[in-house]
């Protein structure tokens, strides 16, 4: 059975000015339920992640400042909104949802987190609406618990996974792959194990050609026993921040390609949803829901 991490707190603890892009966290599961693609049995609500597990990835002083709401104002501005207890609670539940998803992926081949993809959070900083890096925390959890020896992180959000790259810069067991807009946030990039910068207004064909040239070879090279996939839909032509020009069909084909490689190679995959900032919320929700539908068609 496909298992999907979702908690109402994912959507609600944000300032009013940031509510619109966060509506998708409620609307994605609601739409999937409405269409009969999933049932309530597919959805689980994660508990908060343990502090010990956070500290396998994030600097202790940084975490304590988050936890105690004492992060300096300059660092809060880098994150993009004022720090609150509810926001911290949201982040630690997202992180546990991704860890739980790893266990479900071992059982079922794949699992999802409706939120997550908080890839701008580095070991000792938050940035771009990200405070704790859910997939990095989960990857270190798998390594610490000896559940995986070689991990591939496939980050196809339009923004570089700079925090993820920094966290695993000196960790040979985790290979970081980021395919992102060359002229987009973050403007100071970190170095992933493989970065593919994309030109503005790149469309389906050029994008897909680069992905097909890179990912199968990476899987052969890295030989991962677990894959994390960040499936951002801010690559769409309708996205206000993305600067790329993929169609919804192109985005769907991207997801089908990635998931088919995982399935064909029998590699468990955990999927976090990442960014999406199209003008119309229906475009964001439809593109994200297509990722779930691709997984269900392939795995179940």
Automatic annotation (TrEMBL):
Q: Which organism is it from?
A: Mucilaginibacter arboris
Q: Which UniProt keywords apply?
A: Hydrolase
Molecular functions per Gene Ontology: histone deacetylase activity; hydrolase activity
Q: Which SUPFAM superfamilies match?
A: Arginase/deacetylase (SSF52768)
Q: What is this protein called?
A: Histone deacetylase
Q: Which Pfam families match?
A: Hist_deacetyl (PF00850)
User: Which residue numbers delimit the Histone deacetylase domain?
Assistant: 21-290
**Of which family is this protein a member?**
Belongs to the histone deacetylase family.
State the source organism's domain of life: Bacteria
